[in-house]
Structures are given as C-alpha cells and as structure tokens.
Amino acid sequence: MRISFTLILLFLIVCLRTVAQISPGPLAEPHTHLEGISNCTNCHDLGNKVTNAKCLACHTEIKARIDIQKGYHSSPAVKGKDCSLCHNDHHGTKFKIVKFDQTKFNHTITGFTLTGKHAKKLCNDCHKPQFISKPDIKKKKFTFLGLDQKCALCHADYHQKTLSLICSDCHDFEAFKPASKFDHTKAKFKLIGKHQEVECIKCHKTETREGKKFQNFTGLKFNACSDCHTDVHHKQFGTNCSQCHTETSFKTIKQTGGFDHDKTDFKLEGKHKNVACNLCHKTKVTDPVKHDKCYNCHKDYHDNQFTNLGVPQDCIKCHTNNGFQGSTFTIEQHNNYKFMLQGSHVATPCLACHKKQEKWSFRNIGIHCYDCHTNIHERYLNIKFYPDSSCENCHDQSRWSNVTFDHSKTNFKLNGTHAKQNCKACHFKKDSKGQEVQKFSAMTMDCCQCHTDAHYGQFSRTETCDCEKCHGFEKWPVLKFDHNLASFKLDGKHETVACAKCHKKVTIDQKTYVQYKIKDVTCKTCH
Fold first, then answer.
1. Do the Cβ atoms of 394 and 404 come closer than 8 Å?
2. For residue 306, which of 15, 313, 436, 463 is within the disulfide window of CB 3.0 to 4.6 Å?
3. Residue 443 covered by a domain
4. For the chain, first and last CA: distance in Å?
5. Residue 329 counted as domain residue
C-alpha cells in the first residue's frame, strides 16, 4: 500500500516537471498564436533562452528602426539589452508585455522631443490608429509605432497645400496662431512702414474652400498700390502712389522727388511748403480749394480792422509767405495816414504803439502825444504853456531833451548864462529823500531858489535874494555895484584902495565869507 502511494507520487512529480519543461505558462494574448510545442523554436533556440534575433525576426517594424539607428529601441537607454528584460512572457494571456509609466516616460529618447502644446498631450492623444500610415502597423491592436514626425500626419493642412508642409518653418509648438517664426521679409512683398502694423487678416482674407475655412497667403496681387488701396485721386495722378506718398504714412508727402505743387496754379512758397496737405485739402485732395486771398484759408487775426467798403484787405499787403511775424508795411505807407512817423517815431517798433494789450490794434489808437505818452508835467506846468496838452509846444519828435520853449513868455526871461542852461538844471531838483521833483509853476524870481547866497544875507532886505542889483547874467563878478550909494562913499585915496583891504574874510557861526556890511565906518575901524 505504501509502495503504491510512493509510485503514484513519483509519477505525478515527473509528469509535472515534464509539462513545466515544455511550457512555463500561457503566453500573453498577442502571442497566443504561438502556443504549442511545435512553435517554441519561433522564439527559443534549442537549449537556449529567447534571443533578440528571434524577436526581431518577427517584429520587423522594430528591427527596421534599429537598423537605421532611430527610435526608442536605438536609444542609449535600450540599445544592446535583451528584449526579454522588458518584454518577457508565459505569465498568462492578460499579462501586458509592454508596460511603463506613461506620465514619467522621457519622450526625447524616441527622437521626438515634446515641447509646447505637445508636452501637455496624453500618449493616446497622438498614438492612435488613424494617425498610423503603414497598414501592417495600423492593424495592430496596441502599438506606439507607426507615427511620422510630419505635422500633416496628425493635423489637418489648414493651408490646403498652398504652402510648404514643413509647418515648423512658420509655426512653433506653443500655438498655431500667430505664426511666430514667419518672416515676411523672405516673402515676395516686403513689409515697410505702416504695412508692418497692418493685421494679417486685412490683406490675407478668410474664405471657404472645399467646405473649410481657408486664409489665403499666396497669389495676392501687390504690383500696384491700387491692388489693395482705393485710388482717392481717381487716376488723376497716375497709379504710382510712391511718387508722392511714402509707406510710413499716406498723409506724408515726399518733400523731394514727390508731387510738384508748382505745377498747379498755387505755388507753395515759404511756410506753405511745410503745411500738411490735409490742412488745406480738407475733403478730397482733388477737390478745388479757394486760394485767391489769404483769408480763404486764414482767419482774419485783425478782426476786420483792415477793410475797404466791407471787403477784407489781403494779408499779403503787409505780410509774406515766410510767416506772419514782421511786416512789409513801410514808413512811406504809414505816412499816408493821419499819424506820420517822424523823428524817433521812425525807430519805434510797431508793437510799442499797436500791441499794448494781448491783441494788435490799428484803428482809433489816437494821434496825440498823451494817447501813448504819460504827461509828466500835468501837475507842475501851467496848461497855458502847452495848449491841448500838446508836447510839441516844447519838445520835438527827434529827441525828448530838445526843448524849444520860449522862456520870455514867462515872468523870467533867460539872459546870459541862464540862456545856456539845460531846463532840467532848474526845473528838476532832488528833495531831501533823493527823489527827483519837478518845479515849474512853483518857481519864484528868488535867486537863492537855485543859487547859494555867498553873502549870507548881508544884502537881503527881505527873505528873497536879488543878486541882479550887483551882478550880471554873463559873469559873476560885480559889474553894477555903486559904492557911492552905500553908507560909505569912496573919495580921494579911497577910490584906489582894493576892496579886499577893507572887506576881509570873517568866520561867524562856522561860516566863512567876505564881510561887506561894516557897522562902524569911522576912520579908526581901518586906520
């Protein structure tokens, strides 16, 4: 009994070992067609393990990639390793021969680095049958092979074969729009000036072609500006817009080699050369513009001060095209009016009389002196000496200091040295504060009002000085004094005695002067 049990046990062990030597376990689902002892040599060499050669003999698509040194299996991470290290079998039909963490997989080692939008995609977003072009690979239930790096393999050709299929020449992997790598300078039409600021859609219109939206980037006409722009001149100046305009701005006209305005009936001169066209041509450039008179374009700055029977006079009579500053109005022209320019008035700038306020005034500004000049004598000089407050009764227009007043009309006629004096010497005096004060009507006949009494009142019978009794107006020495009219008459030897022998200098109250009034005239005073 015990012997029979032992034999049975040995038999079972031998049978199980034999079965185990034939097949370690069921093959994974992709390899189920290789089940059976007769198929072992498809993968195994007799007496040896599974070899790479056997694997690649079946997986030709991988071998082809390895042969050309491309793809994941040719990368340093895999190259030279046994296939069985990653893809072993006999673990059951549900066993995954290909397994790895897709979230950590380094796609760069496949030869295609994921950047931009591609880096955010899941594996199965791209590795799907519809993107596989080779039929033998496409029929596989599961594979990461068969994709091409050409954009059109996964993406629809938006340009519908009108442009190169190498999308990376113009686009990056961040976004399809805008085409950040596109360089318009390499196109047939170079973008210059304002064209650089124009949105692409303005020239490259979107249309529907073959049922899909399509933006046309080729075949556009650009030989003439009118291919895109409306000719506002209606071909009056030809079709070569660049003859006058620049690509910087349509409103910028070439100063040289551009439109020749001199060919019109209004030649541009002076300031007009720098005026923008639209300042005169306010509607269409070709619309006629009145230009017979300056006021056709310019506002009458002088507010109708220059009109003739209600018609404004043209600015060109006084101004030039070089600017409104300054005037060509001559002195001779000015002298045809009520106020003639003479003397210093000839050198007076126009604005001194005509621009006393913010704006210029030319009408009714006055013709009398006091209309412009302050009457400084108003409180000091009797109006009878200058009727109507006319300064010209004394002064002339050449120089204010030239005075022609006839002093004999007053009570004090100018004689001798007085006639040679400047008016200011007598009529403008400084007060105790050093301020200049006028004196005209307030002046008297008292000599001491202007002159110092050298005799300190010896000959004054009143509070006034009357030097004229002894002195003349030509020279100060005594010419008119008669000693015989004094209290001591000169006779005999006294007639030849020098004045200084009797009239000597004295100092009284810190005042030194010649004493002429001698109280005691008896002989003992001198002898």
1. yes
2. 313
3. yes
4. 208
5. no
